[in-house]
Design brief:
328 residues; mainly beta; 2 helices; Porin
């Protein structure tokens, strides 16, 4: 299958998925009766149990960022990460999310870089001098995501995410796309006791929306397809470890460009396949410290760019996710 046909297939699958999501919540509402309009521990437990595990939102952070039951939640992530290309950076990741029902949720977030080294011209246009320089208080692009979670046959779970990037980021430092971007993602998984294998595929036109948990010092803009496969592992003390292999491919290489970066990523005009294509491995470990605070460690290795990003973060939740044992 050609890349252009693959892109058409992604769009068709997503259109069908959204139609299903529009119907499913209505079916569930039709079965509700006035006698159950008031929430009870039993009804909360039933709603909590019916939500699929794809609601954990591991692509943006630990479980609980997206509410597991109907209602609002807010979170704040504080991250310290080291990129082998530009060194240490510190950023805040505030997020607000609302779950409409057991199938659909909406969330919005914007990264704020307290400290980051940017590869930029510290000289003049006549005498350019490109080197890394520290920058403080720089915003990235705002992301707005509509998520849907649906249980399938044979114990499978399906999650669909439609994301939009709003150009609030600083384009001079390569932390913003400079335009509205989008991403459509399909997520399939099934749990086997402590293991939950998963497969993802999707398409979009902005690399920052593919895996926002790890922030790189450049953004590629243009039509891309992305794939990911791996597994999450439930560990003692409610810890979760996840490891995945990923691939990012440009659908139209002649339309891909990157805003800034080191080496081959240092381009600001239309170029070849280099700035967009990427592949490697992603790992993360989430350790609940309290019901409202999670400590996370993460590491990603880009095989194509020979780049490593590692770090840790604290995620603070306004509302703690409910526990099954606490509602029995």
């Amino acid at each position: 299958m050609s890349l252009s046909k693959a892109g058409s297939s992604f769009r068709l699958l997503f259109a069908v998925s959204l139609c299903l999501f529009a119907l499913l919540p209505r079916c569930g509402d039709a079965q509700a009766s006035p006698a159950h309009s008031q929430a009870t521990p039993e009804s909360v437990l039933e709603e909590f149990s019916s939500i699929t595990s794809t609601a954990n939102a591991s692509d943006i952070g630990p479980a609980g960022i997206i509410p597991l039951i109907k209602g609002f939640n807010a979170s704040l992530g504080v991250s310290w990460q080291h990129d082998s290309s530009n060194g240490w950076s510190t950023l805040l990741s505030p997020n607000a999310a609302y779950r409409f029902n057991q199938y659909v949720s909406l969330d919005v977030g914007v990264p704020l870089y307290f400290y980051i080294n940017i590869y930029s011209n510290v000289g003049t246009k006549a005498k350019p001098d490109y080197r890394y320089a520290a920058r403080n208080g720089v915003f990235g692009d705002t992301s707005l995501s509509l998520r849907a979670d649906v249980p399938l046959a044979l114990g499978m779970d399906y999650g669909a995410t439609v994301s939009m990037g709003l150009p609030t980021g600083n384009t001079n430092f390569g932390l913003g796309a400079g335009q509205v971007t989008y991403d459509l993602n399909n997520h399939f998984e099934r749990t086997f006791r402590m293991f939950t294998p998963d497969v993802e595929f999707g398409e979009g036109n902005g690399s920052a929306l593919v895996d926002p948990r790890v922030r790189k010092d450049y953004i590629s803009v243009g039509p891309i397809a992305h794939f990911q496969a791996g597994s999450a592992v439930e560990l003692p003390m409610r810890m979760t470890f996840e490891a995945d292999a990923y691939e990012v491919l440009p659908l139209k290489p002649d339309l891909i460009y990157s805003t800034t970066g080191k080496g081959k990523k240092q381009v600001t005009t239309t170029t070849n396949i280099g700035p967009a294509e990427d592949n490697g491995f992603l790992t993360s470990l989430d350790i609940p410290v309290t019901d409202h605070v999670t400590l996370s460690g993460f590491y990603t290795r880009s095989l194509r760019d020979h780049d490593d990003v590692a770090g840790f973060s604290f995620t603070f939740l306004l509302k703690a996710p409910p526990r099954l044992e606490g509602m029995r």
